[in-house]
User: What shape does this take?
Amino acid sequence: CNTLEKAHFYLTHNKDSPLKLQNYISNTFISPTSPNHIDSFNPKTGTVYCHIPLSSASDVDHAVLAAETAFKGWRKRTRAERSKYLQKIAALIQENRELFAVWESIDQGKTVERARVEVDRAVSNFSYFSTLISHEESSVRMIDGVALTYEHRSPAGVFALISPWNMPLYLLTWKIAPCLVFGCTAVAKPSEVTSMTAFLLAEVVRQAELPSGVLNIVFGDGATTGSALVKHPKVKGISFTGGTATGIQIRKDTAGDVYKHLSLELGGKNPTLVFDDVDLEKAVATAAMAAFENQGEICLCGSRIYVQSTIFDSFLKMFTSYVSENYKVGGKVGAVVSLQHYQKIRSYLLLAEQEKGKFHLGSIPEEHPKAGYWIEPTVLTEIATDSRIMKEEIFGPVVTIAPFWGEEGAIELANDNPNGLASVLLTKDGARMRRVGERIEAGLVWVNCWLVRELGTPFGGMKNSGVGREGGSYSRDVFTNVRTLHLPS
Ligand code: NAD
Assistant: This one.
């Protein structure tokens, strides 16, 4: 039986022995050269359910060479042909939606409802880029009647596509779809913490009969596998999503390879600004969703809420009662991804206690969780502006709430952070939406909404949240080289 059938069988037969993943290179599932593996845990139970190969530099080399060989043919395919493969992949994920969603939930700890949304978004990634390619535009200019110039693009080559653990399938496909449609080939490496849906995706790609070597998937950690991949001389570009420290390491590791395209989507510590002209009920619902969706494990989550002083008390009261009613652990709130991450979140809560912060919801979770990594939504106030809790990304179900006085004060607090990924602005005042929105140092500003996405808009962060933008034609810039041709008129 194929990998999808095996994954289904595993679910229905409740097998005791862990699943064993294999790399996918040149359209073949193969075991890595080293017998070493990484245990993958089910965050809801704390038990090992899967073994991830720890691929070595020679496995990575094998995959890169397969991608390099495939590039010669793939780059020559017509846009329509490449587009058709993407459509097939989209259709196959759609067909297996529930299987993907259930595994994503087991692997990451998120609820199945949340996982379904992300599987649907993965389908959209492929269908969006499959149509975008046929509407590609190229700019043509005439220089004083002397020369005609136009831009010509060609695919850059083999790409390393590296993704984190919080939205595994969605974020990996956000890279794979544009990479392939713009004519590049790839070696993708999902997070070692959540590799399962990338394994299922490999089977989908096999069934879609994507030409051999166009997409290869290797599994493994950052230090061995990821590092070998980004440093490989035949890798012409890297599209990376993950933590800021890793992004910096990748920049260092590739500093000598000036030719490598680099797109880095990194961490956030995003502010939500609540002005006193809002409809309080709506503002509370939006701020709560931005804080606690996917247990706060979305890079775009609003973990620092600033509320205009005039409505601070009423907002806080309504927010805590809304969250305790609507965001229950085991209901809308899943388990956090790993024991290591649980301990990291816990350490910030211990710090909050030490610093005499006030817990309105949530408490310090037990040090040794017995069955799964569950953390209650936590609402903190009275945390100092310069506390590490305010400065660093916790990436869990933890939010701080603090007051601000006036627009300037709000902007200052919002920007008082080394990161600049996303933000939420809640106000009814149309002029303020622009006045404040245009001064927030963040790549994304959501006004009276959160997580609304159109796949053509530029996505990415300012400051320590990364370099480069992805989405629509911005992804084209990542994956292609542009040359300008000058023709005498
Ligand atoms: P991480 O940086 O630890 O790991 C991300 C990926 O990089 C993994 O696949 C890992 O194996 C790999 N990696 C680690 N070290 C490497 C190295 N030296 N060379 C090459 N690859 C290496 O991040 P994480 O803990 O998996 O994910 C959480 C982080 O991701 C958070 O900071 C979050 O904000 C960020 N994130 C950002 C976005 C965005 O779009 N900006 C989206 C989702 C998550």
